[in-house]
Amino acid sequence: MLILGIESSCDETAAAVVQDGTRLCSNVVNSQIDIHSQYGGVVPEVAARSHLEVVMPVVNKALSDADVTWDNIDAIAVTYAPGLSGSLLIGTLAAKTLAYLHNKPLYPIHHVEAHVYANFITQQADSLNLTLPTKQPTFPMLALIVSGGHSQLVLFRDHGDYTLLGQTQDDAIGEAFDKVAKMLGLPYPGGPSISRAAEQGDAHKYDFPKAKLAGMYDFSFSGLKTAVLRRLQREVGVDFTFPSHELPVRVDEQMRHDFAASFQHIAIETLVDKARRAYDEYQPASVVIAGGVAANQELRRQLSAALPLDIEYAPIQLCTDNAAMIATLGYYQSKRVEPTSPFALEIRPSLSMVQENVV
Ligand code: KG4
Ligand code: ZN
């Protein structure tokens, strides 16, 4: 079964073709990073316009890269939640039109749940050359979902059958990376630039506190972000009223690296502590990480060291936003639920994964 996935929830326009929920035939991602980096973050109106311009060329490229035509495609899967409204609208409109035009079943996909499914891709077309996991995860599966908008631990008993164990009470981890990067004067997006800067820094130079929370598996990153700001203000010799956007010019290179490394170390350790706790309690058969922050090498290193099982990580290209994960989840959805009418599909910009799972 060949599924075309379409993703446009934030600042990536993506399309991919996946066979039987496991084999990646093509994976096209048009990133808007260059467009948004001049503003230091995603500008929703600019994002929507860019999606509109590239969505059809991206879809056509996904089909031609996979060497297939519409006749070969069995279904379309598209992100309908959560994300920026204008961005979601373009992707879903394209998918609805194409489903109607080519008479294909249409499956609405939850973006955050889909991130987990990047881990189910274990085969690929010869031209792709990604380093993929050798086998699919098995259930029960513990998923640590860490992205720009989400930080949560989810226990999957089966496809579509999951429980939220805990989540962030304030900022998402990716958001914390992005904000700390801004304070340090590191370029957008902050996650990869913090990791790069951290390679040359001392992770134990600055001590930052770990949040203590009532929920066993909940996270909080807002306090850590403020602790970094206060320490940075102190180090450069200004008071707490000094604006954070004027800090970067006062930070020298070594300090920047040490702050990046110390922040990253503690932020990642917080995630890994909770994942370890959940592992001990639920004894899952597999553990996966998902979302943009899953690209972080320090997370992979710390998690593998903390858990007594072999974790196979998805390649970085499938951790950040892409449509391969959308098509993959689309396949498993098609086994469980009826397709949606192109006329009925509506976007749900703030739908959480848990709300969706309540039937
Ligand atoms: O999943 P994603 O591509 O988009 C959302 O659905 O949010 O995640 C984007 C987030 C951004 O906050 C970015 O800074 C972070 O993932 N990120 C990283 C790394 N690569 C991307 N964070 C830490 N380390 C990385 N290597
Ligand atoms: Zn994402």
From TrEMBL:
E.C. designation(s): 2.3.1.234
Lineage of the organism: Bacteria, Candidatus Saccharimonadota, Candidatus Saccharimonadota incertae sedis, Candidatus Mycosynbacter
Cofactor note: Binds 1 Fe(2+) ion per subunit.
Catalytic activity line of the entry: L-threonylcarbamoyladenylate + adenosine(37) in tRNA = N(6)-L-threonylcarbamoyladenosine(37) in tRNA + AMP + H(+)
Protein name: tRNA N6-adenosine threonylcarbamoyltransferase
Annotated positions binding substrate: I145, V146, S147, G148, G149, D178, G191, N296
Domain of life per record: Bacteria
Family matches, as CDD domains: ASKHA_NBD_TsaD_bac
Record's subcellular location: Cytoplasm
UniProt keywords, alphabetically: Acyltransferase, Cytoplasm, Iron, Metal-binding, Transferase, tRNA processing
Family of this protein: Belongs to the KAE1 / TsaD family.
